[in-house]
Amino acid sequence: MDTAAAAASAPEADTRREAIRVEDLHKSFGNLEVLKGVDLTAHQGDVVAIIGGSGSGKSTMLRCINFLETPSSGKIVIGGEEVAMRSDGSPANQKQIERIRTKLAMVFQQFNLWTHRTLLENVIEVPVHVLKVPKAEAVARAHELLNRVGLGGKEGTYPAYLSGGQQQRAAIARALAVDPSAMLFDEPTSALDPELVGEVLTVIRDLAAEGRTMLLVTHEMKFAREVANHVVYLYQGRIEEQGPPAEVFGNPQSDRLKQFLSSVA
Amino acid sequence: MISLKDLMQPHRVVMMLVFAGIVIWCAIALRWDWIPKYAPLALEGLWATVWILAVSTFLGFLLAVPLGLAQAVGPWYLSIPARTFCTIIRGTPLLLQIWLLYYGLGSLFPQFPWIRSSELWPYLRQAWPYAVLALTLSYAGYEGEVMRGAFSGVAKGQLEAAKSFGMPRFTMFRRIWLPQAVRNVLPTLGGETILQLKATPLVATITVMEIYAVSSRVRADTFIVYEPLLLLALVYMGIAGVISLAFRRLEKG
């Protein structure tokens, strides 16, 4: 039940460009082994939902992909380019990892908007100061993106004055501003009040519909089933089961997944 | 703003009358005839106080940033010297530091002919370089500790967000980390700058002619004691007021 099965269930996979590949990823914090060899491939346009109980390693896996966590061992290939790693798992080439990170936009559970900057400044920060896009161009694009996530008119507001849902939508606009080749969502709705979850999911659903490549760590099973074309179930640092959402949710094979699904339903 | 009606409350009127009475009494009963003679010297002294304060806090802050950063996240070979420096500065009296630099370095330098013949000698034989150096190191020591807390206090997620977008480390420091750290400790820095102002009279002990030294001179020349000290207190309060206003504006901006 690994890459072979994934390829079999998505026969068109070979013709699409590979976006993210993770091979035999291990990660330990001290003596605690959080990831025990994970393999995962996402092609362009894939929406991969990563589900699992708390402590299953799903956030750690996502954070290893852009090296916010240093993998203990394994291989990470982004857009066909392997990230050079030292023996301790840290990126060997700072320039390379910075370049790769600009193509992977991350959306965090706690939003992590820069608190000392307005929404507009948050959205143009990376385009202007990292990607060296002319400021006028970045500002025009930022207005567009903020409008798109329903925050038109809030450009001059500081994050502290916004609700969690608004902050998360702004964080998504910030992520879109770098024109990413893949987006990493780390439990984007887990820190939100229940009534604010919907507005964020609507934005993510739109992004999925326009064919963006996304890796989505989530607790929203219904949402995962609806937007993902591939679902990965992690259990204690290993992929226990994966496949198209209809199979994973509709006809789970392993007892652990069955138990997990019944506990969150 | 307080309206005129609020000002005319009986207890306020009484307070204002008492204050006006004190001012008028001070003006009439005390001796101020020395002022015209010493005004030029006092202005020079005021200027010396202001520029020594400005230069030492500016340079001190520039030193405090790396001192704080080294202590917050530096490797041991940077953090230990930085911590040692801050501990020594904070653990010894400023007066002692000023004297050690002035009488120590100041008497060491002339023993080297190459220093005496250097371009810097005309400056090194004066007192103010030692005063500025001592005050700078002192401010750096205290603010190094403040900045250590400020740098560690910036939420990890703020830096992670920058990192996750491929922001180079120096850009991240300049655009995210430093501004947030400074913003968090602006009120503290304002208070510390006022403390620094009130530490400047100590340099009068090594013959720097700042505003406190001028008031001492007036006392020594004329045997008038209280009037120069009263005026001196007003001057310090005025400067402290300007500093706190400036920091309040920075905090808002």
Largest interface: A-B, 26 and 19 residues
Gross CATH architecture of chain A: 3-Layer(aba) Sandwich
Report the average pLDDT across residues of chain B: 93
* Count of discrete domains of chain B: 1
Mean pLDDT of chain A comes to 90
CATH-level-4 superfamily name of chain A: P-loop containing nucleotide triphosphate hydrolases
Given as residue ranges, the uncertain stretches of chain B (5+ residues, pLDDT < 50) are none
Query: Portion of residues in helices of chain A?
Result: 25-40%
At CATH level 3, the topology of chain A is Rossmann fold
Strand content of chain B: under 5%
**SSE order of chain B, one letter for each helix or strand:** HHHHHHHHHHHH
CATH classification, class level of chain A: Alpha Beta
Note down, in words, how this protein is organized.
The complex is a heterodimer of chains A (265) and B (253). Chain A has 265 residues and is of the alpha/beta class. Chain A has one domain (17-264): Rossmann fold, CATH 3.40.50. Chain A is built from 10 helices and 10 strands. Chain A has a 6-stranded mixed beta sheet, with helices on both faces. In chain A, helix 6 runs parallel beside helix 7. Chain A starts with a helix and ends with a helix. Chain B is mainly alpha-helical and 253 residues long. Chain B has one domain: MetI-like (MetI-like fold), CATH 1.10.3720.10. Chain B has 12 helices and no strands. Chain B has helices spanning 4-7, 10-29, 35-73, 76-91, 94-108, 113-116, 121-124, 128-153, 156-164, 169-199, 211-222, 226-252. In chain B, helix 3 packs across helix 8 (128-153). Chain A binds chain B through residues 66, 68, 94, 97-106, 108, 110, 112-116, 125-126, 129-130, 178, 184, and chain B through 155, 157-158, 160-169, 171, 175-176, 179-180, 183.
